């Protein structure tokens, strides 16, 4: 899904783009987890609601990385950010969750962004033993919530 808009000025430091209603409807939620590009610079985010409309926030670091500023015409490609499923999990985390059904149920009840954080935290470890240790810590946290 694509749309174009100019980056508006704001009275505060924040900058955001209003996402057209037809795109919001096709995303399935006014606060959907989304990913895509703004002027070919990739992003992952969650839409926010303000005064009944959905907006995509653009942080200062993202605007700097994308080389955009107030008044620029932005080309946006946006799609739902699919939650981490069983196939997206690091093998160590997947095995740990299979061995602990209570933790697996708690993991499944998390929001997609929280599941993704756990998966990324484990996957970013370079060594297998570190991924295994983080998986065990994740299981412990999930079982003690």
Task: Give the SSE map.
Blueprint: E1 2-6, E2 16-18, H1 21-27, E3 33-38, E4 41-46, E5 48-50, E6 53-57, H2 60-66, E7 73-80, H3 91-99, H4 101-109, H5 112-123, H6 128-143
Antiparallel strand pairs: 1-7, 2-6, 3-4, 3-7, 5-6
Helix pairs in contact: 3-6, 4-6, 5-6
Written description of the protein model:
The protein has 6 helices and 7 strands; from the N terminus they run ββαββββαβαααα. It is elongated, with a radius of gyration of 18 Å. The strands form 2 sheets. The chain has a 4-stranded antiparallel β-sheet. Strands 2-6-5 form a 3-stranded antiparallel β-sheet, with no helix packed on it. Helix 3 (91-99) packs parallel to helix 6, helix 4 (101-109) packs across helix 6 (128-143) and helix 5 (112-123) runs antiparallel to helix 6 (128-143). It is 41% helix and 25% strand. It starts with a strand and ends with a helix. It folds into 2 domains: 2-80, Beta Barrel (Elongation Factor Tu (Ef-tu), domain 3), CATH 2.40.30.100; 86-143, no CATH class. It is an alpha+beta fold and 145 residues long.
Number of domains: 2
Question: Main sheet: which strands, in order across?
Answer: 1-7-3-4
- CATH topology of the largest domain, what is it called? Elongation Factor Tu (Ef-tu), domain 3
**What's the CATH C level of the largest domain?**
Mainly Beta
Shape: elongated
The number of helical elements comes to 6
The total beta strand count reads: 7
Biggest sheet, in brief? 4 strands, antiparallel
The CATH superfamily label of the largest domain reads AF2212/PG0164-like
Structural class: alpha+beta
Let me know the average pLDDT: 90
Helix content: 40-55%
Unreliable segments of 5+ consecutive residues: none
Please tell me the CATH architecture of the largest domain by its name: Beta Barrel
Strand content: 15-25%
Report how far the terminal alpha carbons are from each other.
38 Å
**Which sequence of SSEs, written as H and E, runs from N to C?**
EEHEEEEHEHHHH
What gyration radius follows from the Cα positions, in whole Å?
A: 18 Å
